[in-house]
Design brief:
The protein is an alpha/beta fold. The protein contains 17 helices and 9 strands. It has a 7-stranded parallel sheet with strand order 1-4-5-6-7-8-9. Strand 8, helix 16 and strand 9 form a beta-alpha-beta unit. Helix 9 crosses helix 11, helix 11 runs parallel beside helix 13 and helix 16 packs parallel to helix 17. The longest helix has 25 residues. The structure holds coproporphyrinogen III.
Length: about 350
């Protein structure tokens, strides 16, 4: 399988020996004694402990302070017994090292103070190595590994895909229609290529550095390309850069998860850009999406995160529906098909994890 998806031999030798953690086994399509489960945005505002910490520290402070980031990373793992930890950070901090001013504004999401508007702005962007600019997150990964090593719970590192990051760099915030991004992409195709090329350089280096720091899997988030673009534009303006990113990180020797949101009308093309595991969003029934990809390709997903706002009886039916569609095949990692929302009841998360464990043991 590893060869089929372009994963080269692990420098650490991990790919040569079978992992024991259910999550890592499922990433390689190996049978597990139960379905592993972790959740997108498993650390966050729905947790009272997280809200208390954020009263005292800004988002960027938490991300840049290894001890705080490690503490938040471990919170949901300790409380719910999840099968993987995802390092607490965000996809946007690597933009700071490139020369963009980032802030997280309360109730308003991320803001870039000096968004890109000209081709010269693109040429001024730097591409410094992650070991100079992302030390807080790399140290947080090492701390979490030390804490979790004896429990065989892997840490997942992550980064944003080039289109998604370019949309923040150009719009300066989360966009509804991506009009500035698309105007730039259509009018300045050469500068667009240079911009995505620089983003690929920075993100590939960052992902490889996270694996070196101890991350045992990597996830690439392409949250907005599928929302912004039709298939032909995706193939022309995004796919070559995503392929390049996945090709560069294939040498990390750890499984890579390709989570591309909103791509159901061109799922095979998006998944074809690379990655060992395909993260499925919640819009397509899991069995249909998996069949389109081929059942030999591991998948992760794909409960609608709003299901956790429903009463338990309804949530239980929806969890069972995902599990039934997965059909007990090897290579399924249970997850939500987009991030948990801030008003998710803690008890729904607890019951979800327990239920997946009971139903699949
Ligand atoms: O637990 C985890 O999943 C790890 C942490 C994580 C965060 N952001 C923390 C966060 C991860 C993996 C992300 C990824 C991310 N960030 C994506 C890709 C995934 C997706 O949701 O599509 C995107 C597009 C972003 C950009 C971003 N960051 C937005 C749009 C927002 C504001 C919206 C919101 O939910 O508030 C953020 C802020 C953010 N990132 C928060 C958290 C916990 C909320 C910060 C706070 O107020 O405490």
């Amino acid at each position: 399988m590893a060869e089929q998806f372009g994963v080269t031999a692990a420098p650490s030798g991990e790919a040569d020996t079978e992992p024991t953690s259910p999550f890592l086994r499922a990433c390689r399509g190996l049978p597990t004694d139960r379905t592993p489960v972790w959740l997108l945005r498993q650390a966050g505002r729905y947790q009272p402990e997280y809200r208390a910490l954020r009263e005292k520290h800004s988002m960027l402070e938490v991300i840049q302070t290894p001890e705080l980031a490690a503490q938040v990373t471990l919170l949901p793992v300790d409380v719910f017994g999840l099968d993987a930890a995802i390092v607490f950070s965000d996809i946007l901090p690597p933009l700071v090292g490139m020369g963009l001013d980032l802030d997280f504004v309360k109730g308003d999401g991320p803001r870039i103070g000096n968004p890109i508007s000209t081709t010269r702005d693109v040429d001024l962007l730097g591409t410094p190595p992650a070991e100079e600019t992302m030390t807080g997150t790399l140290e947080a990964i090492s701390l979490v590994c030390r804490e979790l090593g004896h429990r065989d719970i892997p840490v997942i590192g992550f980064a944003g895909a080039p289109f998604t990051l370019a949309s923040y760099a150009i719009e300066g915030c989360t966009s509804k229609d991506f009009s500035r991004t698309k105007a730039f992409m259509f009018s300045e195709p050469a500068a667009w290529k240079r911009l995505l090329g620089k983003l690929v350089t920075v993100q590939a280096d960052y992902l490889l550095a996270q694996a070196k720091a101890g991350a045992r899997a990597l996830q690439v988030f392409d949250s907005w390309a599928g929302r912004a673009l039709g298939r032909e534009d995706y193939l022309r303006y995004v796919a070559p850069h995503n392929r390049e990113l996945f090709a560069r990180v294939a040498g990390a020797g750890v499984p890579v998860i390709n989570f591309s949101l909103g791509v159901s009308s061109y799922l095979t093309e998006a998944a074809g850009c690379g990655g060992d595991v395909v993260g499925l969003d919640w819009t397509t029934p899991l069995d249909e999406a998996w069949e389109r990809l081929g059942f030999e390709r591991p998948v992760q997903g794909n409960l609608d995160p709003a299901s956790l706002l429903a009463p338990w009886r309804e949530l239980e039916l929806r969890i069972d529906d995902v599990l039934e569609r997965a059909g007990g095949r090897p290579g399924h990692i249970f997850n939500v098909g987009h991030g948990l929302v801030p008003h998710t009841p803690v008890d729904s998360v607890r019951r979800l994890v327990e239920h997946v464990r009971e139903r699949t043991s």
